[in-house]
Amino acid sequence: MLHSHLTTLNAVSLVLNTFSSEGLPSDALLAGSGICAADLSRADIRITTTQEMQVCANAVALRGEIGLELGRSMHVSSYGVLGYALLTSATFGDALRLALEYPALLGTLFDLQLREDCERIWLSASDYRDSDTLAVFNVEWCLASMKLICDDLLGKTLPLLEARFTHAAPDYQDSYHQSFPCSLHFNSRGDDCAFAFDKSWLDQPLPLADRITHQDMHERCRRLNTEFTGRQAWLGRIRQLLADQLRCAPGLNGLAAQMKCSERTLRRHLQALGCSYQQLLDELRFERAKQLLHQDQLPIHRIAEELGFSETASFRHAFVRWSGVAPSHFRL
Question: Is the Cβ–Cβ distance between 102 and 82 less than 8 Å?
């Protein structure tokens, strides 16, 4: 996706750990993502949300309700510096408002808001911006993890009053009560999914509040957010240039010239982002290939040409590597 932003490997590692007890090889979950097992040992690596979502799509194909399970594992400590800033906030309300101030650090694909409704506060997730096929998974993961963060901050369970979801009740809806022990409403008419709690909780002092540590962590969050958003803008420019030239990709040297930097500088920046020119090109080709394959009237050899492959066989081999299936099977 051209709007992809950067994130850490925390979520990917969580997915792999969740399935590790079942003996599933990590390669099956990493398939098509451009992430390799060696990347998991690098604490400083950054990946795109498109890469992250590919791993999640592989997980959902294996177990539909995995979003809720993952959300119940995303403790506040999973968010690094932001997590410590939240824990050391003065009140529960201060912590929630701070979390929503830095969506890039939170890694959310939604617009998260606190909405007041008389004596209730709704923690709302709207304006979803990723694959429609993963919409239910992402909202389950998002709200289940936000509920767990709330419990972690308070040091006890936050009592919920109600939860609403715009999607239909899944066949595993009983699992929702583990994350949302309250009245549940599916097929909600609103434009958001949300859970509600009593407004008075916003003023609740946090047990780990510490003013000095909080100030330090908050400043680190500000600097890290600047770094994340700056890298996001830079990566977005590269991705847009490549997306416009898939039929005749410019190569690393040509792309560097378009970015007005040296090839060595471009390679170094891409390495710092945890990716390479070829990985970005493959990711964009894969996204475009899936779009074109949904157009039944377009022959596969024409799709190969559109993506810059000189031979149809080369495209077929690449697509199998990206997705695990041949393009003709993907189209079925």
Answer: yes
Give me the chain's average pLDDT, please: 89
Query: Mutual orientation of helices 135-154 and 80-87 as an angle, nearest 10°?
Result: 40
The pLDDT tens digits of the residues spanning 57-80 come to 899 988 889 999 999 999 999 888
Both 263 and 173 in a single domain?
no
User: CB neighbours (10 Å) of residue 13?
Assistant: 15
Choose one of 160, 184, 209: the last residue of a domain. 209
Q: Are residues 198 and 77 in the same domain?
A: yes
Give the range of the structural domain holding residue 88, as residue numbers without chain letter: 66-209
H helix or E strand, kind and range, residue 177: helix 176-179
> Does residue 8 surpass a pLDDT of 70?
no
pLDDT digits (tens, 9 = 90+) for 176-220: 999 999 999 999 988 899 999 999 999 999 999 999 999 999 999
Cα gap 47→59, rounded to integer Å? 18
* 8 Å CB contact between 319 and 313: no
User: What's the distance, CA 107 to chain centroid?
Assistant: 6
Residue whose token pair is 């697509």: 319
Q: Is 46 helix (H, G, I), strand (E, B) or coil?
A: coil
Where do runs of H (alpha helix) occur along 204-247? 211-243
Q: Can you say whether the dihedral through the CA atoms of 280, 281, 286, 288 is positive or negative?
A: positive
Which residue, of 190, 209, 228, is where some domain finishes?
A: 209
Contact 99, 106 (CB under 8 A): yes
What integer pLDDT is reported at residue 330 of this predicted model? 83
What's the predicted TM-score (pTM) here? 0.72
Instruction: Please state the domain count of the chain.
Output: 3
Q: Where are the beta strands (DSSP E) in the chain?
A: 6-7, 47-48, 111-117, 120-126, 162-164, 183-185, 192-198
